[in-house]
From TrEMBL:
UniProtKB keywords: Transferase
Record domain GST C-terminal: where: 86-207
Xref: SUPFAM superfamilies: GST C-terminal domain-like, Thioredoxin-like
UniProt entry tagged with the keyword Transferase: yes
Protein name in UniProt: Glutathione S-transferase
Native organism: Mixta gaviniae
Family from the record: Belongs to the GST superfamily.
GO molecular function terms noted in the UniProt entry: transferase activity
Residue ranges occupied by any GST N-terminal domain in the UniProt entry: 1-81
């Protein structure tokens, strides 16, 4: 039995939950993290010394890092339609998964902590303005890519890359800031809403 450790409000846990729905996987989930059992509990640290969610246990195999987890699950459970085996096609998917983890996550972090989490440590007006500008610029890169493909981030078909990026698009629209007019991103947002997994784990008002 696949077990997922982490609270469902976490954007990284929701990557895994959405993928499980796409693959039709049965799983058990345990609540860990903010508001639940602390990830600094010795039992959790024995599974992930970084004290971060999600963690999965697939029988006797334990894995952490959300993007690694979704790649593993797609490889193990018949997800070739989401995560191609051909090197160039897979590299394109990996490129955008990694872009989300590095460039896009970095761009939204300060603004999200300030405007959504209301973190006292993230209320510097100058830094917030710079963060909103940087986030807008990075979303512009996504808009350009979606204009090129006309459908999904790595091409015409829905792939594994659309899970982390789709959740990030939800975060963009759910954060109270001035949103640039990006027609391709908006169309992508609406297109993803046709997928049950996105309605359940993405476009649910939880940034």
């Amino acid at each position: 039995m696949l077990k997922i450790l982490g609270r469902a409000s976490s954007i990284n846990v929701r990557k895994v939950l959405w993928l499980c729905d796409e693959l039709g996987l049965t799983y058990q989930r345990e609540e860990w993290g903010e508001g639940f059992t602390s990830t600094h509990d010795a039992r959790f640290l024995a599974l992930n010394p970084n004290a971060m969610i999600p963690v999965i246990q697939d029988d006797d195999f334990t894995l952490w890092e959300s993007n690694t987890i979704i790649r593993y699950l797609a490889n193990r459970y018949g997800g070739e339609w989401l995560y191609p085996t051909m090197p160039r096609e897979r590299a394109r998917v990996d490129q955008w998964i990694d872009w989300q983890a590095t460039e896009l996550n970095t761009a939204w972090r300060y603004a999200f902590m300030s405007l959504v989490r209301q973190s006292p440590a993230h209320q510097n007006a100058r830094l917030l303005a710079a963060a909103c500008k940087g986030w807008t610029y990075t979303m512009g890169i996504l808009n350009q890519q979606l204009q090129k493909t006309g459908r999904y981030v790595a091409g015409e078909r829905f792939t594994l890359a659309d899970i982390p990026i789709g959740l990030s698009v939800n975060r963009w629209y759910e954060t109270p800031l001035e949103h640039a007019s990006y027609p391709a991103v908006r169309a992508y947002y609406e297109r993803l809403t046709g997928r049950d997994g996105y309605v359940k784990w993405g476009r649910n008002g939880t940034p």
